[in-house]
Design goal:
Elements: E1 15-19, H1 26-36, E2 40-42, E3 46-47, E4 62-63, H2 66-74, E5 78-83, E6 89-93, H3 94-102, E7 106-110, H4 113-123, E8 127-133, H5 137-147, H6 152-166, E9 174-177, H7 181-197
Parallel strand pairs: 1-7, 1-8, 2-7, 3-4, 8-9
Antiparallel strand pairs: 3-6, 5-6
């Protein structure tokens, strides 16, 4: 995680959660926030899926065996975790997050909707939960198709999941529509700045 000394003095940090349906631009927005805010560090998720070629254990993900993941669940070590297609599991270990908060960093989460609401419930006013919304279903379909990585079946699964996620949007602190990336990022950066200074 980030070792940049420009953090929020000796004060304990807070949590910023970004949630969006697949294809709504969340990863691009998260990268820009991390580049623009030196006191922001990324929460590295644990997963049971095998690493991809370019991925580094501890930087991209914490790669756990299914048995290690089970043990961490049994020990209550996760802030949140979820199982996805094909039985792969992802989760956030509380120890790593707490370590960064104690150093005074703001910790950025890029997680799924139910996990986000669990983290928000646990941290209350010390967590800002932002939902990034596509302008429409049709726009989301176009963005997913443009990636060129979706089969018709996986596209349908992602759309079903997106509709489920969108049904939770009103439970978030803030909803930002990504109809224009530049405008969306400015709105997000303003909200984050205000939260960091509160």
């Amino acid at each position: 995680m980030n070792e940049n000394p420009a953090k929020s003095s000796s004060k304990r940090g807070k949590i910023i959660i970004l949630v969006a349906p697949s294809g709504a631009g969340k990863t691009t927005l998260a990268r820009r926030l991390l580049a623009d805010f030196p006191n922001l560090t990324f929460s590295v998720s644990a997963t049971t899926r095998p690493p991809r070629e370019h991925e580094i254990d501890g930087k991209d993900y914490l790669f756990l065996s299914p048995e290690e993941f089970d043990q961490a669940v049994a020990n209550g070590e996760f802030l949140e975790w979820e199982e996805f297609y094909g039985g792969k599991r992802y989760g956030t270990l509380q120890s790593g997050v707490e370590r960064e908060l104690e150093k005074g960093y703001f910790v950025l989460f890029d997680i799924e909707v139910k996990g986000a609401l669990n983290v928000k419930k646990k941290y209350g006013d010390d967590a800002l939960a932002v939902f990034i919304k596509p302008p429409s279903d049709a726009d989301l379909v176009q963005r997913l198709k443009k990636r060129g990585t979706e089969t018709e079946e996986s596209l349908q699964l992602r759309l079903e999941r997106a509709r489920m996620e969108l049904s939770y949007a009103d439970r978030f602190d803030c909803v930002i529509v990504n109809d224009d990336l530049k405008r969306c990022y400015k709105e997000l950066a303003d909200v984050v700045t205000s939260f960091m200074n509160s």
